[in-house]
Amino acid sequence: MRRMLALALAVLLVLPAAASAQTVIPILGPGGVLAYSNASMTAVNTIADITLFSYQIPAGLIATGTTAGATVPILGTTMTAGALMATPVPLHLRMIGDITTNQGVSGPGTFNLGIGLGASTATITLASAVAPLPNLVQRAAQIDVWISPIATTTATPNTPNSGNTVYLSARLRFDNTQSNGGTVANVASETIINGNVIGTISTQTAPTFTVIWKWSSASQTNNVTFRNRIFKVGD
User: Fold this and answer.
1) Which of 24, 137, 183, 194 is 20 to 30 Å from 102 at the Cα level?
2) What is the spatial distance between Cα 183 and Cα 103, in angstroms, rounded to a whole number?
3) Residue 94: which residues within 8 A CB-CB, separation 6 or more?
């Protein structure tokens, strides 16, 4: 009897291992953290595209099924059972840092900020030729990006290469307050830029999620630095 139990246990242990050999399984940290870094990423004195964040998302975190199914009551409302089981939890990236611009009378030029998720239809040009004020000295800046998978409403879910639908939204906020020698010259004024798109991505391979910054002119005092980045499941 013991030998039969040992054999059955050995089979159970071997079969999942063989099946998971072709599966990418993300390692979640505390609070659902997928990736975290406190290493500074800086775009300064260059007009090149600077990648501030890049992460290859396991397809299982954004692949969706179908919402077709029996309805169930939840919190006084009616939802489909399929909607609960077939849609992964949204993902959230938060980047915190600061921005500095040309000191003196000359303008700092402009900057662009782009968000990409594995395909051209799932991209956001969040900032295009945005001109911050001059004389900014390490003013607070923050980037947030949310990735929300959308399940199909038909009885047939998406296949990996047919295109899964995602709602991609992003926000840049920074303190657009002029400074002079570290002294604030006027009342703080925050600039907020929002963007969103509904796009399609293939989950046949793990899509790459990127955030890219680009200055229009190279200057030692045109400097944006993000000092920590956290990418996690949930908000």
Assistant:
1) 194
2) 13
3) 142, 143, 144, 229, 230
Report phi then psi at 84, rounded to 5: -75, -35
Spatial CB neighbours of 132, under 8 Å, sequence gap ≥ 6: 99, 101, 108, 111, 174, 176, 191
Per-residue pLDDT of 67-111, as tens digits, reads 555 455 555 555 555 445 557 889 999 999 999 988 765 677 899
What spatial distance separates the first Cα and last Cα of the chain, rounded to whole Å?
Answer: 50
Q: Of the candidates 188, 199, 26, which has an alpha carbon nearest to the alpha carbon of residue 123?
A: 199
Task: Determine how many CB atoms are found less than 10 A away from the CB of residue 184.
Answer: 13
List of the chain residues with pLDDT < 70:
1-29, 65-86, 104-106, 120, 152-163, 179-188
pLDDT digits (tens, 9 = 90+) for 77-86: 555 554 455 5
Q: Where are the domains of the chain?
A: 31-233
